[in-house]
Amino acid sequence: MLKAILFDVDGTLAETERDGHRIAFNLAFRDAGLDWDWDVELYGELLAVTGGKERIRHYIDRHNPDYPAVADEAAWIAGLHKAKTAHYLNLLADGEIPLRPGVRRLLDEARDQGLRLAIATTTTPENVTGLLEATLGKASIDWFEVIAAGDIVPAKKPAGDIYTYTLDAMQLAPEECIALEDSANGVKSALAAGIPVLVTDNAYTAQDDFTGAVSILSDLGEPGQPIAVRAGPAPT
Ligand code: XBP
Ligand code: MG
Fold first, then answer.
1. What's the complex ipTM?
2. What CATH number is given to the structural domain containing 28?
3. Does pTM surpass 0.90?
């Protein structure tokens, strides 16, 4: 019996990447005097690596191997990432990033039916609460029994750690839950924890391999706005 819905955040609750995280990374680079510019296409490639600090590390390895010329590289990246988070939180607070279609409705219906809710994400915890506060109001943070985010587990998605952590915290079996994801890394992560997963894809993930997902949908739909079913059973 379904007892809980476990939500990914970036790309699933909202289209946060192109006009949110990407912009915030670029603002932080500018502040730091770096001439790095992650355009929409490059950012799509960099999304293969989850986690902002890990993404910066990967970019340096691939595109700027001479950076940073500092003794403590990890601390330098952490500082740059902290500045990025501040910019991202400002974008959220300015109301720049709306929820995806149907997200609010699903949350309302799930709560009405007594389903338990949680979040399992790679992003920084403040980014989750910032998004919830800006879109659904501060009280919505308490709708989620567990907000599992960021560095709380050693290995980020596609590893299953963040979902396993969430199951343990909720004392639930994987088959009592469904995960909602937007990316191949997210699908792999949920499946690694044994959790069935439903996908709502987006421009950055439309070509991803979603093998193992229950269904792949364009979005959760709004009245008068039909859902495109890419694969699997249509929602009822
Ligand atoms: C989301 C991410 C995150 C965000 C950036 O993946 O990969 O890294 O892009 O967040 P998922 P931070 O949706 O699979 O959880 O910069 O705060 O790490
Ligand atoms: Mg995602």
1. 0.93
2. 1.10.150.240
3. yes
